[in-house]
Specification:
single chain, mainly alpha, Ribosomal Protein S8, Chain: A, domain 1, Hypothetical protein af1432, GMP Synthetase, Chain A, domain 3, three-stranded mixed sheet, 15 helices, 8 strands, 72% helix
């Protein structure tokens, strides 16, 4: 490369440097101007932002100040309310304190007054005792009575004065007792049944069957008990096979079923063939025989008494009484005996003896089904007689022979009399004559120990006592108490089965003659 070219290149480089310097200088001048503008704008913007922030801060400060002022006002009101309540309570406490102070002073005065009055009363009491003692001595001296006699006289007077009130109280007490009598009666009956019914039920609900040996017991029971279950199902009874040697017990409340089971078991033991089919065959056979026996006994009773036109169902019920007992007395024999007695009484009184016998014969017919139908046997028997078109006299005699309903004819009275005679006849119910008479005498003697009693008669085999009192000594209200006292004394002094009815009679009878 030559020198001119090198020079040109140098000059070009210098020129280029100068141009570049000029260009960059121009840029620097423009940049300076731009940064100044930017700074000015930034200052303006920061001023504006600062003003906005201060405005928002002022607004927020105002809001917080208002909120705080509201809370302060609310707290101030609450404090004022609390101060008001405290002031009221303080006033109340002051008033109560004043009141307690007054009461305390009042009680102190009262105590002093009571102490004074107590001392005065003690002094007065001593004076009164002295005066009473002096008056007693004067009274005894004037009346010539001893202190014991005076006390007795005073007690009698008090009893007369307060007797009416006592009778009224007793009547009210009896009324209250009657309200709960049914519930209490059930409880008493349940208790008595639990304590006393075991031996009685054993006697009237079980039958004992003798067997030749213990091997027969096993045959009666059968394999896995099938024979005894078949027997109980066919007869409707319970069979008890225990360790007692030589006996089997049959238990049932229905006397007909129990008798059928007894006869069936007897035939099975005699026959020796004991299995379910044979059991059913024997039971069916005995059932037919029992029905025949019942019909025969009923027909025999009607025939012996010569009573025409008796319904067949009534005949059947009479036959069932053959297997029913009451207090050890066979009921069928009892009603037949009553019928004969009623016929004789009717003849003596000049009324129809046939109707009287009919009334007496059916008076206990309800006992044939009283274990199946709810109610007492007089009510059951009356309903049965009504169903089979018995005369009204017969129906009333059955219903009234225990005084459950009023008697409406002479035949009802005859029926009750014959029933009492038959039931109370010595020996009829397994009682000796001496014990029977002694029981009645003791019953009457208890009633006669009470003041005002004129006479006492035991009736219905000692199941009832009728007490006659002096109407001048015993009033209507006193009669209630006296009757209750007699019943209570009988309970405490005598021993007897069942219950004894105490009937107290008080009347004023005046007789005059017009001549």
């Amino acid at each position: 490369m030559d020198t001119s070219q090198f020079l040109l290149i140098g000059i070009g480089a210098v020129v280029g440097l100068l141009v570049a310097f000029a260009y960059y200088k121009t840029k620097l001048v423009g940049a300076g101007k731009t940064s100044s503008a930017i700074l000015a704008d930034a200052e303006k913007e920061s001023g504006r932002i600062k003003e906005d922030f201060l405005a928002k801060a002022r607004k927020e400060s105002d809001k917080r100040r208002e909120h705080l002022e509201g809370e302060i006002n609310s707290k101030r009101k609450d404090l004022e309310s609390v101060e008001s309540r405290l002031a009221k309570k303080e006033d109340n406490l002051d008033r109560k304190f004043d009141l307690l102070s007054k009461k305390e002073s009042y009680l102190e005065n009262k105590d002093k007054s009571l102490d004074n009055r107590t001392s005065m009363m003690e002094q007065r009491e001593q004076e009164l005792e002295q005066v009473i003692e002096e008056e007693k001595q004067n009274l005894f001296r004037v009346t010539n009575l001893s202190p014991e006699e005076g006390k007795k006289l005073l007690l009698q007077k008090l009893e007369q004065e307060f007797g009416h009130e006592q009778e009224t109280m007793l009547t009210n007490m009896l009324d209250r007792v009657k309200e709960s009598a049914e519930t209490k009666g059930r409880e008493i009956l349940a208790s008595c049944i639990q304590r006393l019914a075991a031996s009685y039920c054993r006697d009237i609900t079980t039958s004992t069957i003798e067997i030749p040996n213990d091997e027969m017991k096993g045959r009666v029971i059968g394999r896995e008990g099938r024979n005894i279950r078949a027997f109980e199902k066919a007869t409707g009874v319970d069979v008890i096979v225990d360790d007692t040697p030589g006996v089997i017990i049959v238990s049932c409340f229905d006397s007909i079923r129990r008798e059928m089971a007894r006869q069936s078991m007897g035939q099975l033991i005699t026959d020796g063939r004991i299995h379910p089919a044979r059991i059913e065959e024997i039971v069916a056979q005995v059932k037919r025989e029992m029905n025949d026996i019942i019909q025969e006994e009923g027909k025999k009773a009607v025939f012996d008494l010569n009573l025409p036109g008796v319904h067949p169902k009534m005949v059947t019920l009479l036959g069932r009484l053959k297997f029913r007992s009451s207090y050890g007395q066979n009921v069928l024999e009892h009603v037949k005996e009553c019928a004969h007695l009623a016929g004789m009484l009717a003849s003596e009184l000049g009324v129809d003896p046939v109707l009287a016998k009919r009334c007496a014969l059916f008076h206990d017919v309800g006992k044939a089904v009283d274990h199946e139908i709810e109610g007492g046997h007089p009510e059951i028997g009356a309903n049965i007689a009504r169903r089979y078109d018995e005369p009204p006299e017969v129906i009333n005699s059955i219903a009234s022979h225990h005084n459950d309903v009023p008697m409406e004819s002479i035949y009802a009275v005859i029926t009750q009399i014959s029933d009492s005679i038959s039931g109370s006849r010595p020996g009829a119910r397994g009682e000796t004559l001496e014990r029977y008479i002694k029981k009645l005498e003791n019953l009457e003697a208890v009633a006669l120990t009470f003041s005002g009693v004129k006479a006492a008669n035991a009736i219905q085999a000692g199941r009832e006592i009728r007490v006659f009192v002096n109407s001048q000594k015993v009033g209507d209200k006193n009669a209630i108490k006296l009757c209750r006292d007699i019943a209570k004394e009988i309970e405490n002094t005598l021993q007897y089965p069942g219950e004894i009815k105490v009937t107290l009679l008080r009347e004023t009878r005046v007789v005059e003659y017009a001549r």
